[in-house]
Amino acid sequence: MAFVNGLKCRECGREYPAEPLNVCDFCFGPLEVVYDYATISEVISRDRIEKGPLSIWRYKDLLPAEADDPVDIMAGFTPLIKAKGLGKTLGLNNLYIKNDSVNPSFSFKDRPVSVAATKALEFGYETIACASTGNLACSVAAHAARAGIRAVVFIPSDLERGKIIGAAIYNPVLVAVDGSYDQVNRLCSELADDYPWAFVNINMRPYYAEGSKTLGYEVAEQLGWRLPDHVVVPAASGAMFTKIWKGFNEMACLGLLEGVEASPFGIDQNTVHHPAVTTAMHMIQAEGCSPIVTAWANKQTQVIAVRPDSLAKSLAIGNPADGIYSLKVIDNSGGSAYAVPESNIVDGIKLLAETEGIFTETAGGVTVSGLKHLAKSGAIKPDDLTVVYITGNGLKTQEAVEGVVNPLYIKPSIRGFEEAFTGGK
Ligand SMILES: *Cc1c(COP(=O)(O)O)cnc(C)c1O
Ligand SMILES: [Zn+2]
């Protein structure tokens, strides 16, 4: 049973029933799920979570879908790894990697999509759809395959091959649009009015976005029910960034953290901040698409849309839906925002691969380069407990690194090997 009271406008506070709605009729503000925290606080416990499945559904009490038979390809419960090699290189003694690149469709998007797909079936939809920067298309197609329903996924046509194939293989209706993500999103918003489909990041967005809270819950659980001092997170729409923060604060308010007093009735939508939550939220974008970072740097209260031109296509949203809410999270948490130069993205991918044996996509290259900047600048101190979120898999963006890998091509002989081996390195 889901402990959901309904939906609520994040701007004017008007309330709506828990239906497939995402925008307030009165002020056009985005809607967010409202939970019955009083009841949740009666049933939830660390013990109950620990006995749950090794997927996001162990946190079902805090997710907005009925979890009896979820659309589950085992998203979540990904490794949290002590980063000894990368930590040594960056001078950080207490660094952890949340490796979400090993999800079933190879990005963190499986978390929100598993929730949205489950909710879509609950509402009786027979088609799930999305506007995607790449990874979302893969995840929606995979979950639709699992559920035995149709997927219609829209992508910009200039995506990396690994993402086109990584979505197409599940046999969705894959629509490659000659335009930017922001144009794809606008098209899908119009289609959502006419087609009876569950667009996971449009009419299902309030439910969908909640899935990313599990990135906060899991890190806390894996650290022994503690929160880190710093997290370093990439942003496109900013939804994941805000939901990690929400997840931390819900855990604190529900008394699930070590040594933290519960205050469940203090939880309010999107302003939620338990005083014991002192994690600094650091947002990283790529310079070629950094509207939220720019707004933060210029102390703007609005995020001005940009036209993306970035190697990190999965982060290329020029008009981020959760931009202003992200700014509030940076502010409330004492965090920061940084835009990585485009020329450092591949360095970040290489650095993570060479020091930790983890091959991330361009978004991860952005995040690792951002982490490096935060360590160098002293924003993160050597002993601070730090978690860097690696959200996507490098095998999907091979184009980005093709030019920097150097296999030894030899004839099949000892001599051939030795010539190449001694000469080559
Ligand atoms: C979509 C995506 C993001 C950004 O997610 P938002 O919630 O839109 O900020 C980050 N990393 C990867 C790999 C993604 O696919
Ligand atoms: Zn409103």
What characteristics describe this protein?
36% helix; Rossmann fold; six-stranded mixed β-sheet; 425 residues; binds zinc ion; four-stranded parallel β-sheet; binds pyridoxal-5'-phosphate; alpha/beta
Give a description of the structure.
By secondary structure, the chain is an alpha/beta fold. It has a domain at 80-106 and 210-404: Rossmann fold, CATH 3.40.50. The chain contains 15 helices and 13 strands. The strands form 3 sheets. It has a 6-stranded mixed beta sheet, sandwiched between helices. Strands 8-7-6-9 form a 4-stranded parallel beta sheet. Helix 5 (135-147) packs parallel to helix 6 (161-168). The radius of gyration is 21 Å and the shape is globular. 56% of the residues are buried. Bound molecules: pyridoxal-5'-phosphate (PLP) and zinc ion (ZN). Zinc ion binds at residues 9, 11-12, 14, 24, 26-27, 29.
Q: Figure out the total of helices.
A: 15
- Main sheet characteristics: 6 strands, mixed
Order of helices and strands: EEEHHEHEHEHEHEHEHHEHEHHEHHEH
Strand content bin: 5-15%
- Bin the helical content: 25-40%
Mean pLDDT reading:
95
Widest sheet: strand order? 4-5-13-10-11-12
Unreliable spans: none
Attached small molecules: pyridoxal-5'-phosphate, zinc ion
User: Which structural class fits the helix and strand makeup?
Assistant: alpha/beta
CATH architecture of one domain: 3-Layer(aba) Sandwich
Radius of gyration: 21 Å
CATH class call of one domain? Alpha Beta
- The CATH topology assignment of one domain is Rossmann fold
Compute the separation of the termini in Å.
Answer: 60 Å
- Please tally the β strands and state the result: 13
Tell me, what's the shape? globular
